[in-house]
Write a structure and sequence with these properties.
Layout (H helix, E strand, L loop, with lengths): L40 H12 L3 E2 H4 L5 H6 L4 E4 L3 E2 L9 E2 L9 H12 L3 E6 L10 H14 L4 E5 L9 H7 L4 E3 L9 H4 L5 H14 L4 E8 L5 H13 L4 E6 L16 H13 L4 E4 L9 H13 L4
Parallel strand pairs: 2-5, 3-4, 5-6, 6-7, 7-8, 8-9, 9-10
Antiparallel strand pairs: 1-2
Helix pairs in contact: 4-5, 5-6
Length: 317
């Protein structure tokens, strides 16, 4: 995939690659999707710490609906390697373009922010960096090691890109020993061409499988969005594929359209349908399942990690 940039003109639109797409229809949100605007004191304090350390968060860049709740509790998901992605997924609100060089001080800044926020569990994600030889895997490892050095009691969850065609990248991240290795499938295979065109479904499944081959004790996690036009049987097949890769934790949430230039919401899935998916997923053998309209990969990640550990130990009692 080639990204063509106009570096001569003035201020660029956030999503120039989507600028000439026809507007999609925006469905009216049902009551169960609505959230309050973030105005709390805790939100402001978290924002100040993020700004002071020059960090990006996926909470802001991706327009997460849970930002008010999470930041009030001083929970944040750090997005490393800049705010510009080399891919242009149809669902994503992170901007696309040519990223800046890596900030070698970023691992230290992430560790310092983790300490200031007093995080017992931290989530680190990133943009896709197809421009780097290892896709940024080495940078992920440096961030993990920096957090371990400064916050030894903090558990670490990484949400990585697919490192497509980057040999040895997964091995670098696993060697740094995060507590949870998360990589999202995002959608069902039939929707990849329109929703996630730069990725390959079975490459993502293989990545998750490879993590378990390297370290069978490491928790693995993946998530999908619904409401993109997928069929129920396709969702169930994704569950089976993830279990075949021995993935421990599944998250499922409603897709929300960032702008009318992004992929349309085809349907708002009601809460009772999410509950049914959750029941089926547990029956298929996942240790942990989080499925609701507002579920996101990092929402309640710390509490979920505690439950995940308990679920693994339960059969041993």
């Amino acid at each position: 995939m080639a990204v063509v940039l106009d570096t001569v003109g003035g201020a660029r639109a956030r999503h120039p690659e989507k600028a000439h797409r026809p507007d999609t229809v925006a469905l009216e949100k049902p009551d169960w999707i609505r959230v309050k605007a973030p105005v709390s004191k805790g939100y402001a304090q978290t924002q100040a710490i993020v700004r002071a350390n020059g960090l990006h968060t996926v909470c802001e860049e991706a327009g997460c609906p849970n930002i008010g709740e999470c930041w009030e509790k001083k929970h944040a998901t750090f997005m490393i390697m800049g705010d510009t992605c080399t891919r242009a997924c149809a669902f994503c609100n992170v901007k696309t373009g040519l990223p800046a060089p890596l900030d070698r001080n970023e691992p230290m800044h992430v560790a310092e922010a983790t300490a200031k926020l007093g995080l017992s569990h931290v989530v680190v994600t990133s943009v896709d960096r197809d421009d780097l030889d290892d896709g940024g895997a080495g940078h992920f490892a440096e961030v993990i090691r920096a957090i371990r050095a400064q916050c030894p009691a903090t558990t670490i969850e990484v949400l990585t890109p697919d490192f497509l065609r980057k040999p040895g990248a997964v091995e670098k991240v696993v060697a740094a020993r995060p507590d949870v290795f998360n990589h999202n499938l995002e959608t069902v295979p039939s929707k990849y061409l329109t929703v996630r065109p730069g990725a390959r479904y079975f490459a993502s499944i293989r990545l998750l499988q490879r993590v378990k081959e390297i370290d069978p004790a490491m928790f693995t996690k993946s998530g999908i969005m619904v409401g993109l036009g997928e069929e129920r049987n396709e969702v169930l097949q994704v569950m089976d594929d993830l279990r075949a890769a021995d993935v421990d934790f599944l998250t499922m949430g409603q897709y929300l359209q960032p702008t009318r230039k992004h992929h349309a919401v085809m349907r708002f899935v009601p809460p009772d349908e999410f509950k049914a998916y959750e029941t089926i997923a547990y029956a298929k053998g996942f240790l942990m399942v989080s499925a609701s309209p507002l579920t996101r990969s990092s929402h309640h990640a710390g509490d979920d990690f505690a439950q995940l550990k308990a679920a693994r130990q339960a059969p041993l009692r």
